[in-house]
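Hey, can you fold this one?
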Amino acid sequence: MRNPMPTRISQALPTEYRGRLMEHAREVNFPEGARLFNEGGRADRFWIVRSGVVTLDLHVPGKQPAVIENLGPGELVGWSWMFRPHQWHLGAEATTPLRTHEFDAEAVRELMDGDPAFRAAVATWVGQVLAHRLQAARERLLDLYAPYGSGSGR
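Sure. Predicted structure:
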């Protein structure tokens, strides 16, 4: 069983910093089946799910994309916006009608540059999300391609 990590914004960011971030949010909705982004694309925004489900996937040559994880309310969609070269490492698709808070990545990076404590809080949150996503990707790929699966029932 995976170690629980505070990856939802309500658990990961202190109230003060969560409020500062949310001041820069705009509501954006996606219909079921909409692609939010594709691997290799420009990571110039990110989202926090308000309602619905978004699937993260990984391109597998000659096969359907491998579903890595399903994300729901309060979860961060996209971390590549924070790290150069600001290109998506995964793809994302709305698997239900999706309501989100959308953020302009450049504006948030500028906000972080102006406040080292805010930057540290957001970087810690994104780092926790990244660690969680890498573990989820590892487990999913082992389930799909390893002879005995991930052994996630450990």
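The mean pLDDT is 89. Let me know if you want another pass with a different chain boundary.
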